[in-house]
Amino acid sequence: MTHWLILPILLPGMLAAILVMVTRYHRVLQRTFSLAGSVLTLALAIGLFWRASDGTIDIYQLGNWQAPFGIVLVADRLSTLMVLITAILAPLVLLYAIGSGWDERGRHFHPLFQFQIMGIMGAFLTGDMFNLFVFFEILLIASYGLMIHGGGADRLRAGTQYVLFNLLGSTLFLFALGTLYAQTGTLNMADLAVRVAALDPADTAGIRVAAVLLLLVFAIKAALLPLHFWLPASYAEAPAPVAALFAIMTKVGAYCIIRVYTLVFPTDLSLTQGLFDTWMMPAALLTLMMGMIGVLGSNRVDRLVAFSVIGSMGLLLAAVSVFTPQGIAAALYYAVHSTFAAAALFLLVDVMRDRRGDMGVHLRNAAPIAGGALVAGMFFVAAIAMTGLPPLSGFIGKLLVMTAALDHPLEAWIWTAILIGSLIAVVGFGRAGSQIFWKSHQVAAETTVPDSEADESNTPEQVPAPPVLPVVAIGGTLTMLVALTLFAGPVMRTMDATAAQLFNPAPYIDVVLTTEGKVIESGDYGDDTGGDAATAEEGY
Amino acid sequence: MELLVATAVGMLTASGIYMVLRLRTFPVIIGISLLTYAVNVFLFGSGRLLPNAPAVLTDGVDIYSDPLPQALVLTAIVISFGMTAVVVIVALGSWLANDDDMVDTPNADTEPDAADDQARAGAQS
Prior knowledge:
The complex is a heterodimer of chains A (540) and B (125).
Chain A: H1 7-21, H2 27-52, E1 58-61, E2 72-75, H3 77-100, H4 109-125, H5 129-147, H6 153-184, H7 189-197, H8 205-222, H9 230-237, H10 240-246, H11 249-263, H12 275-297, H13 301-322, H14 325-355, H15 372-387, H16 393-404, H17 411-446, H18 468-486, H19 488-502, H20 506-514, H21 524-539
Antiparallel strand pairs in A: 1-2
Chain B: H1 2-20, H2 25-45, H3 67-98, H4 111-124
Helix pairs in contact in B: 1-2, 2-3
């Protein structure tokens, strides 16, 4: 047992408390602490990833209680991979928030940010279903605060929808957990795996309901088609750094699907047969198509990017639905890629919003952007990555997904949806890019822009050239995409190993259930409670 | 007793879902509160209903009620309480900022453009 495991959760949590209590009125201190904490978390995440990279499964028993009774944190390849992605994304997003001044537009940005990181890390590391619910709530309640950071009528309305939708999701999660507990009598994931496999095949109605309810809950998080309605408005209206951080939140849903359905409800289990083939795959393909059509149909860049996130989630979940080691590995590669691509795009949209004056994010004619070449170049790179054109990682990811889908019964449908979806997305992004970056020069040559009032209450005054920090932040996310492309081979080997570990859950279950916790001498409680019980009986 | 509890959970859930489907924030929040009550009772019931059975180890007792759902319910109650407070505040903020308490965004994709067109028309005329 190693205590390092809980540090990615403890560090942001403690830091957030310090930030909100001590450095409340010191902006510089807040920024320094927050950034330093994020970098430290990154170091921890790299360490954990390193430890897990040889296939070791680390376990941390909270309060030293043995597994089915106490809560455990488990770090295997998948968990540490997701923790690492989050930890890389967080400092970049923070840099942008600091550089663009977003953290000053409302109060408590940094504490909320750290709490959000805490929740995400916890959700990735926990090995207990109810603890997963609790970490979901931590990341959600922080995200509610971040979502409405800076205020504004549209953002508050979108925030209300976001909060309400997620509250419903949480309620559903509790229903699922109740059903699960009623059927199996445990909520520890490893223990669940054992008990679900041992259930009587004749009496599985309850556990099937639980499996479907859980899938629904995670599908809400992952924005699967009939449950995606919260995403476009929330992501488009959220402050840019927050939207960029939210890029990892949809992956939390995908992570949970992968984790729970490889461990607890493996595909060879008869009672959940057909859940992925019959239901998830068509839904994922429809999500992909709908997202990409939304990209083409949006008349605002922020909504366009939000729809592209839905589209990429569709592709990711399609890869998950194939549910072979190859499919999961492809899905993981694509998850890393789409996190950074979406983050880069959301940050770029904010740069455009700041520099396009009253036209903001609308796809209308406006004067050219100050420092346009740099912004245009970065948008070009990010759009190539997001739509999956060669040479960047999106193309590799898509290729991997399509290869993984080769032997699937719905192969033709998958290929068609992915290829047509990409085509539509390319057209959509091409239209947006040319409208914003090329048409503007034509507009500037023809007329001067009419002076109309700014309709966005929170549009900041125009900055002449892009400041350094935001460019560094966006450059960082793009660098990750390039690195993901250049090192596709080693990365894919890691993903393959991760998928292989997921499809062989025996060591995971073994480590969780057989690690000894603290020993309680039997009879310790007998003498004490005996007297109490006697007095209690007298009381009756 | 099972029938009674099950009916209560069902009624609460049904009314909750009905309220959640309303257009304005207040009924929706009430609906969510009803749903959280329903889920709390449901969670409690997931450990089986055993009247007059202690949850803590006691001498001379053979039948115990399951203590875990009670702990889970406690957590769920605290969380849903906090969340309801948050949603009330956010909804209040939204109402004050937007001058109406509708949940959905009217014409999310077209409204800003209409405003632009008006601005443009105003600039041209």
